[in-house]
Amino acid sequence: MMQTQPQQIANTPEMAVDLRYPAMEADYGDIRLTLTWYIPDGQPCMVLTPVLQRHKAAFVPPIILLTNAWRWDEKIGDTRWAYDAAGIFTEALGFTRSIPMTHRILSIIRDNLGELLALPNMTHTESHAVVAELTVTNRNTGKTRQIEVSRHV
Asked: CA 9, CA 19: separation in Å to the nearest integer?
C-alpha cells in the first residue's frame, strides 16, 4: 500500500489562501468546502475546514490545487493515492480516521471537482478590495449570511 505524506498533498507556505474571499462555500454537515485562490500563483484551489473549530493551535487546512485536481478524478486519477490522501485529510480536519469518514471526504472532493475546474485563475494579486456586500438567505431555513464581493471575482 502506498504511503502518502502530508507534504505531498499540499506544500503550503504561510498565507497560502485567504478564506475571507471565497469564490464559493458549501457546508457538508460538519465540513466546509471553500473554493478560492492559491495566493502564491493565483490558481484556483479547494480548501476543506471543519465547520466547528476543532483545533486549539494554528490550523493548516487541506488544500487541493487545480494543478493536482486530476489525481482525485475517478476516471483518470490515482484511486489509491486519493483514498490515502482523503484519510490524511480526515485526520487533519480533526476527525477520527475511519472508512466511512474517508469515503465522505473523498466524495465531497470529487463532487466539487467540476466547480474547481470552472473557476478562473485570480486575475491579480493586489489587495482584495471589497466592492459590494450581499446577504444570502436560505429559503428553507431562513438563515442568512453576509458575503463580501471583491474586485477579482
From this structure: 19
pLDDT higher than 80, residue 9 = no
Joined grid coordinates for residue 137: 438567505
Neighbours of 52 (CB within 10 A): 8
Cβ atoms 33, 25 nearer than 8 A: yes
**pTM for the full model?**
0.70
Give the separation between CA 49 and CA 47, rounded to whole angstroms: 7
How many other C-beta atoms lie within 10 A of the C-beta of residue 25?
16
Helices (H), 40-98: 79-92
Q: Are 133 and 148 in contact (CB under 8 A)?
A: yes
3 state SS of 141:
coil
Read off the C-alpha cell for 38: 492559491
